[in-house]
Design a protein that fits this description.
The complex is a heterodimer. By secondary structure, chain A is mostly helical. Chain A has a single domain, classed as Orthogonal Bundle (MetI-like fold). Helices cover 76% and strands 1% of the residues of chain A. Chain A contains 14 helices and 2 strands. In chain A, strand 1 and strand 2 form a beta hairpin. The longest helix of chain A has 33 residues. In chain B, strand 2, helix 3 and strand 3 form a beta-alpha-beta unit. In chain B, helix 9 crosses helix 18 and helix 18 runs antiparallel to helix 19. The radius of gyration of chain B is 24 Å and the shape is globular. The chains are: A mainly alpha, B alpha/beta. Chains A and B meet through helix 1, helix 2, helix 13 and helix 14 of A and helix 1, helix 4, helix 5 and helix 18 of B.
Chain lengths: 293, 441
């Protein structure tokens, strides 16, 4: 027993550096920003404690509520589209087609590019005199030409499409990995029983993809609720606040407008929002995974 | 027992190594978790911490002039080092709007440079209030600087930064297009509208305008306000800051006149989707005849389009007032926690000298703040220079406003009007609301 305790102390010492980093760079900032959310603070002078006033102001501020609505809509659209298309791509690239290795690489490339690069790329393409409108003109679809980032709905959808385009490869790779663990024999057995390709997919393959579905849904839901880079780089929240997300508003208020206290309160609201959505989602998906096995 | 001791000792060594690498002893004070993107910046700057090594003093300077805008920074630093043996200067430039947030984070983490560049106006106030920058009121150079320039770096009657230069917002115009169509630079708003009509009829876009972030309209309103509002009412900001004046009811004519230009089709089509790059390209290639922007782009345009014959004029009001929108662009302040205060003050005094300011201002196509400096400016900037010399100019709007967040409303709200979601009255009411909310705190 003594020896055991001794060993435990010995090994736990090795955890100290990690613990130190964790506390300094994660725990402390999180706790301090929860404190700052209760203060009136411009980020420079001494914070003044004001209780829950920042939260009251947040929920009375129509722009903040709009940002929450936008964020939820981003999360929903991006999660659904990215997973449906990602799964479709994975299934297609799991088949025995000749260029599948090259194609997998092509679809995965945007994931490893920096958001900055991707956003500037799309900014150029979406410009009224950019390549997307030029191509539409070339194929005589002039009627479809748009001021992509100048119209509220189009700007919002452009950001959704760009995000999906960027991260679809990520979902695809996770589904692909899962697909390769599914034994051929199961599908063959189903085929012998007379199931066609669609039936085989929905009755055999899809239930067995439960683990990857769980992780993909969670990752894309949480990730898209924190959406910031494309908005910051492409629309600055505009036109007329149409594309503002909670993180973008947090940044604008906290850093640009010198309301660090309000910004901290916004981050707490976002944290609770993510928690409120991801926990039930996780619970549901876990249960579903159990049932599938 | 020996083992335990050695383990504890080892772990302490590990920890000390770690903290030495980190170098940011006050890192934990950074404003919030969301500030983490700057962590790498801080780490990179910690290498440039002021340290007196032997006889040489290493001064660090941090500013928002970088890339194409860096101008004579290196030249001046070399000149300073030559004049002051034993002091070396290391300048770090981070361009763009994120500079403000970055500087704030560094001050908060005790990691700021000895000399820090600030935007004038409200940005300086909180640092001054918190005692993080040095009072420069009694520096010998202070009397040489124009009073109107010092106003925007003064807080509670004390001078906290040296204004280096003045920048102006005005209209770049294509002299060839104006000449071919027989248009003179406008002295009244109606002249401008008539000119735009003529230009449009000739198949050229009158105003190249970016509004994908609302900045084109915002800067245009910034450059209209001196002629339209402040030429007649220089007390407006005072009353606004006390909550006695309102935008709605006083600014309506100006906004209506401006947004009418869009209704008449004088802006780049679909301006709300147009980026700065594309708007600037239209002006440089002659697809558009005018563009409202800052004179700091003068040198860049000349470099990018050497063939282009262009100059700048100020936007006139309906009554024929032609004031410039000119404001201090860069200012230097001294970090109160600097270990090299004397050297830092020497550096600022060096920048305040007329001859050095001339070098800097010329490289920025900017106007001087030192009363004795006569920078050799582009002839195309003459009209603005004359207005400034005559005292016919007003600061950039947010510099005179206590609640600077009001100015942040102008970009998005302009998009709202251009997109037809709101009208001029709602635009101004929203600014009034923000101002009242800010003042009530």
């Amino acid at each position: 027993m003594r020896n055991y305790v001794h060993k435990l102390t010995y090994f736990s010492v090795f955890l100290l550096p990690a613990l130190f980093i964790y506390i300094t760079f994660l725990l402390y900032p999180i706790l301090s920003s929860s404190y700052y959310s209760l203060t009136e603070w411009n980020g420079i002078t001494k914070p003044v404690f004001i209780g829950l006033d920042n939260f009251v102001a947040f929920f009375n501020d129509s722009a903040s509520l709009k940002a929450i609505k936008n964020t939820l809509l981003y999360a929903f659209l991006i999660t659904v589209i990215q997973n449906v298309l990602g799964l479709l791509l994975a299934v297609l690239l799991d088949m025995n087609i000749r260029s599948r290795k090259v194609l997998r690489m092509i679809f995965f490339t945007p994931v490893i590019l920096s958001s900055l690069v991707v956003s500037y790329l799309w900014l150029r393409m979406l410009d009224p005199s950019g390549v997307i409108n030029a191509v539409l003109e070339l194929v005589h679809l002039d009627g479809l030409k748009q001021v992509w980032l100048g119209d509220a709905k189009m700007a919002f959808m452009s950001i959704v499409v760009m995000s999906v385009w960027q991260f679809i490869g990520y979902s695809m790779v996770i589904y692909l990995a899962n697909l390769q663990t599914i034994p051929e024999s199961l599908k063959e057995a189903a085929a012998i029983d007379g199931a066609n390709a669609v039936q085989r997919f929905f009755n055999v393959t899809f239930p067995l993809l439960a683990p990857s579905l769980t992780i993909n849904l969670l990752l894309s839901a949480i990730g898209s609720m924190k959406i910031f880079d494309p908005i910051f780089l492409m629309t600055k929240g505009g036109p007329f606040y149409a594309t503002e997300s909670v993180t973008f508003r947090l940044f604008e208020q906290g850093f640009r407008s010198n309301k660090a206290g309000f910004g901290s309160a916004t981050s707490i609201v976002l944290f609770l929002l993510i928690l409120l959505i991801s926990l039930p989602l996780l619970a549901y998906l876990r249960r579903r995974e159990m049932n599938a096995q | 027992m020996k083992k335990v001791a050695s383990v504890v000792l080892t772990s302490f060594i590990c920890l000390s190594v770690l903290s030495a690498c980190g170098g940011n002893k006050n890192e934990a004070e950074s404003p919030s978790a969301s500030a983490s993107p700057s962590a790498t910046q801080q780490a990179s700057e910690s290498a440039a911490q002021p340290e007196a090594q032997g006889d040489t003093i290493k001064l660090t300077a941090f500013g928002f002039k970088a890339g194409a805008e860096i101008g004579a920074m290196d030249e001046l630093n070399a000149k300073f080092e030559a004049e002051n043996p034993g002091i070396t200067v290391e300048y770090e430039g981070k361009p763009g709007a994120e500079y403000v947030a970055l500087a704030k984070t560094r001050f908060a983490s005790g990691d700021a440079a000895d000399i820090v560049m600030m935007h004038p106006g409200a940005e300086i106030a909180p640092y001054a209030e918190a005692g993080q920058i040095v009072d420069l009121t009694n520096e010998p150079w202070a009397s040489e600087i124009a009073d109107k320039a010092k106003e925007v770096t003064t807080f509670d009657g004390k001078l906290y930064a040296l204004p280096n230069d003045m920048a102006a917002l005005a209209v770049f115009y294509n002299k060839k297009i104006f000449g071919d169509l027989g248009i003179e630079t406008p002295r009244k708003w109606d002249d401008l509208v008539a000119a735009a009509e003529k230009i449009k009829a000739s198949g050229v876009i009158p105003f190249s305008m970016t509004n994908n972030d609302g900045s084109g309209a915002k800067l245009a309103l910034y450059s209209m306000a001196p002629s339209w509002i402040y030429a007649a009412d220089q007390d407006f900001d005072n009353r606004l800051n006390k909550g006695e004046a309102k935008f709605n009811g006083t600014w309506n004519d100006m906004l209506t006149a401006f947004f009418d230009l869009d209704k008449k089709g004088y802006f780049t089509p679909q301006t709300v989707g147009v980026t700065y790059e594309s708007a600037m390209k239209d002006f440089q290639t002659g697809k558009a005849a005018m563009m409202v922007w800052g004179n700091w782009e003068y040198a860049n345009i000349k470099k990018a389009a050497p063939e282009l014959d262009f100059a700048m004029f100020n936007l006139p009001s309906k009554n024929g007032d032609v004031w410039a929108s000119a404001a201090v662009g860069t200012t230097w302040s001294v970090n109160a926690k600097s270990k090299n205060l004397d050297a830092a003050k020497k550096y600022i005094a060096f920048w305040a000298k007329a001859e050095n300011q001339e070098i800097w201002d010329k490289s920025q196509s900017a106007f001087a703040t030192n009363k004795n400096a006569k920078p050799d400016l582009e002839p195309g900037l003459k009209e603005i220079g004359d207005a400034i010399a005559a005292g016919h100019f007003w600061n950039f709007l947010d510099q005179g406003w206590k609640v600077t967040a009001v100015a942040d409303k102008m970009g998005p709200n302009s998009q709202g009007i251009l997109g037809g979601q709101i009208n001029v009255e709602q635009f101004l009411q929203d600014m009034d609301k923000e101002n009242a909310a800010g003042l009530s705190k």
